[in-house]
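Morning!

As promised:
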Amino acid sequence: MRYCQTCRFQLDKRGFKRHTLSVAHRKAKLIRAMLERNCITHAEIARRIGLTRERVRQLALQMGFADGRSRHAICRMERRRKEMAEFFVQAQKRGFAVELLGTRNAYINGKLCIQRKACWHDVGKSEHKYTYLSIRQPRGRFDICAWKLPDGRFLILPRKLTGFRQTTFNPEESEHLGTASSSHYYRQHIERWSLLGRPRRSK
Ligand SMILES: [Zn+2]
């Protein structure tokens, strides 16, 4: 089998001169650039270049790119990763293997983890008014819920500690112990990554 020195595509028996006039040869750079972006399908490349989808599939194969189905899977994975909730990005950085289910839920060490957000919330009135963080009970299945705090840290609670509908807590040390409805002890669970078990690899 002979290959074109310029575009590296296979030469067919019609010869080199004929090949240099072909769309594949003239647009080889563009085809390669598009194939490198996994979210552009063979069909889309075919449409933009003016080739059949089958021809694009053959050229991709010759250039050593993954097949269409794999490219599609890689594309989906890349998209998910981009939208991945911060908690999972942080978990990965800490050496945990994150198996994404969606953008806001994933398995980590066999535990179903979800991410939610905590917001500032005023509790009490006048001189007894304090600003605490408010969290809501997540719906659906999960083993561990991580609430992202406004300062970027995470409150990480196991399911058994999430028996509230909505509650508040003070993320800082305070002399105001709060009431049953402002469960300050949650502070101990901020950045409690150990709840996920051991990372697969050390940092
Ligand atoms: Zn060529």
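The pocket of zinc ion is lined by residues 4, 6-7, 9, 19, 25, 28 (CB under 6 Å).

Hope this helps with the figure draft.
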